[in-house]
Amino acid sequence: MSASSKDIVDFHRRLRPGQFLDVLITLVPESQFFVKDRQSQFMAASPGFARMLGASSVDALLGKTDYDYLADFLAKAFIADDRRVMRMGKAIRNKVELVPEGDSLDWHSTTKVPLFNRKDEVVGLAGVTRVVDDSDDLYRDHPEMHRIIEFIAGTFRDKVTIADMAHSAGISVSSVERLFRKMFEVTPLMYLRKTRLNAACRLLRQNGMSLQDISKECGFNDQPGMTRAFRQELKITPLRYRQRFKTIETAK
Fold it and tell me: Which of 45, 131, 146, 246 has the highest local Cβ count within 10 Å?
């Protein structure tokens, strides 16, 4: 159940003074911020964060959770971190994680800190996230990996091979495979599949394209191939995923 306007107002009133620094956070270049309650419902966010998730506005985002806008494999990971921060009352700082960037995915550095009420009880969290760039540790020693990530973002709808990735960065296939495992703990093809799944989930939520057309649009070999990827990664079929969001919209 989504939070009401009264719930959102009450949430802000319960916060201990001096924590809500959204004005300062919005001034940090290339960063987006958000605030969640104990149920991981969004209580506040920067306009850029709302756009990043695919919400039409900040107001549209309020009271919703990551599951309303993201593929389950992303939402599940984000909310698991929320639970950890709120259970332990301790921050997670500069975690490198996959975050949606339009139809594609990119690596972000995300920090989440607990928010306390006047009784020192955890009532939610505040977070800030930004795209990892070439000056960060992740890419500083291996700038070729950033070129590969950008290459995949622009070509995942096509037939992409590891050899194509290697060529885009001027390194060997074995180097691509080794660096993906070392830096991201996934294989190059697993990363490519996640990118395609993210794009497919967005199309399933937002329009009435046929499953066959979505599979082609997102780079899968065919509709059965997309269905297999959904079953393996999301434990659900594309059709059931679409129906779930139709049910949510009907209930509003």
Answer: 45
Record the tokens describing residue 73, joined without a space. 């494999």
- Second-level CATH architecture of 5-131: 2-Layer Sandwich (3.30)
Q: Which whole-number Å values give the CA distances from 89 to 118, 121, 125, in the listed order? A: 14, 9, 9
Q: How far apart are CA 218 and CA 83, in angstroms?
A: 32
pLDDT digits (tens, 9 = 90+) for 36-86: 999 999 999 988 899 999 899 999 999 999 999 999 999 999 999 999 999
Phi, psi of 36 (to 5 degrees): -130, 155
CATH architecture of 137-251: Orthogonal Bundle (1.10)
Structural tokens at position 203 = 């199309």
DSSP code of 15? Answer: B
Domain with CATH 3.30.450.20 in the chain: 5-131
**Two tokens at 195?**
């990118």
Q: How far apart are the first and last CA of the chain?
A: 10
User: How far does CA 83 lie from the centroid of its chain?
Assistant: 16
Summarised one tens digit per residue, pLDDT across range 94-132 is: 999 999 887 789 999 999 999 999 899 999 999 999 999
